[in-house]
Amino acid sequence: MRSGGRLLLTGFGAFPGVADNATERLVPQLADRARARWPDTAIVAAVLPVSWTEGPAMLRALLTTHAPHLALHFGVSGQARGLVLETRAANTCRAMPDAAGSLPPRDLLAADGCDSLPATYPAALIRDRLAARAIAACLSEDAGGYLCNAILHTSLLETARSGLSGFIHVPADLGETGCPLSWDAALTAGLVAIEAGLTVGPHDDNQDAGR
User: Fold this and answer.
1) CA-wise closest residue to 169 among 72, 101, 100
2) How far lies 86's CA from each of 82, 89, 90, in Å?
3) CB of 27 within 8 A of CB of 9?
4) d(CA 77, CA 60)
């Protein structure tokens, strides 16, 4: 772990279909564990609103204020059965209402941007380290067109010259009976991802997402 590193962790609040977003509780707990493990790292944890305008705006303010070496974002997925490590953010917005019932103001996240941006955290390395701990994880090239994708895209644009960014989906039923991923395993996975991102740096092995 680099001395004096800076880390930003974010989760989400509730949104249509998910009245209790597990990342709203997971991220503060992960931040507490990370502070205990790496006391010389400046760690900021925040819960972003599921809003097409307010979510990205809050993230930009956090990134500008704290200039993290690593920005690691968490969201929930109804399809995830383990950790899903997103490796790409598409320059698109799905016409789905946010928590306030508002639709995205435009079809593209960046009017003059490229079709997609590659995530810059070492996703494949994190996956392999999680596999060594028997924690299920996979790589994904599709973060969806909702706010998870929008936050990753925003983060990648804002940290392009100053740090690394990544997004991890956890099961929507994390913490509930029957979820194949335990709460403690999710916290352990978060620590593994933090350690990899703050010590190893960017990896071109994120291109392994299709395998």
Assistant:
1) 72
2) 13, 8, 11
3) yes
4) 24
